[in-house]
Amino acid sequence: MSIDLKLDKAGDTVTLEVTGNIDMSSSTKVRDALAPLFQNNNKVIVVDLSGVSYIDSSGIATLVEGLQWSHNSKNKFRLAALTPGVKDVFEIARLLSVFEVFDTKEQALAE
Amino acid sequence: MSQPIKLSIPSDPKYLGLIRKVLQELLDSHDVPEDTARRLILCVDEACANVIKHSYEGSCDEPIEATFTIEGDDFKVQIRDYGKQCDIGQIKPRSLGDVKPGGLGTHFMNEIMDEVSYCTNRAKGTLLTMIKKLRTGLTSTQDKR
Questions:
Q1: Chain A residues with beta carbon closer than 8 angstroms to that of B112
Q2: Is the ipTM of this complex over 0.95?
Q3: Which residues in chain A are closer than 8 Å to B137, comparing Cβ atoms?
Q4: pTM of the model
Q5: Alpha helices (runs of H) in chain B, residue ranges in sequence order
Q6: What's the pLDDT score for residue B138?
Q7: Is the CB of A68 inside 8 Å of chain B's CB atoms?
Q8: Do A57 and B46 touch (CB under 8 A)?
Q9: In chain A, whose CA is at the least distance from the CA of B58?
Q10: Does A23 contact B141 at a Cβ distance shorter than 8 Å?
Q11: DSSP letter string, chain A
């Protein structure tokens, strides 16, 4: 399953909507899409994971990198709409509390 | 299931999806619960990714052989590669308190599986064996803590 990435910018917020599986073959594409967002004037960066049913350690690593970039750039970095499979992987990695996680994209953008 | 299911893929990340699909079908056919299957698939995917990264150092046309066996309550998977042998003593998960990219794959395997062992007692490569009891402590990592 190939991965589909869609950017949606509204004012100083931007949403990266990911559809597909994030694994070793696709996590680089997510990273390449994510990295430039921290160099622009985006106050809030949301990754919408509602279309992702599978994520592996390389995908988690990419999102951890995003978190580190947000700390350096002072952007807010948020994850939204984790599917049960993705949430489970975050829980096994004990990283769920490290991120700002929202049930929906709308909630992530509204806060 | 008396006969194991064997699958060989090239060491190209694009084939990891194939091995996940085959394993999903196999676990479905044995009525393994969805959340358990998801975790077993994660372990196999991570093991193969480690082979590509570490044993074959990114080379995409080397063999990765996976053998799946379900016997009684035991799910067993063996991953065989013919690449660089790692120092088994050096294979350990990173500290989870240290939030940084990378190093999680080994943690997933150790956390989810009941047994994880590496054998390098061969001319080339490594044989990784992972075993999981299918009827106990499958869905909660709490059970293993």
A1: 92
A2: no
A3: none
A4: 0.90
A5: 16-29, 34-50, 104-112
A6: 45
A7: yes
A8: yes
A9: A24
A10: no
A11: ---EEEEEEETTEEEEEEES-BSTTTHHHHHHHHGGGGTSS-SEEEEEEEE---B-HHHHHHHHHHHHHHHHH--EEEEE---HHHHHHHHHTT-TTTSEEESSHHHHHH-
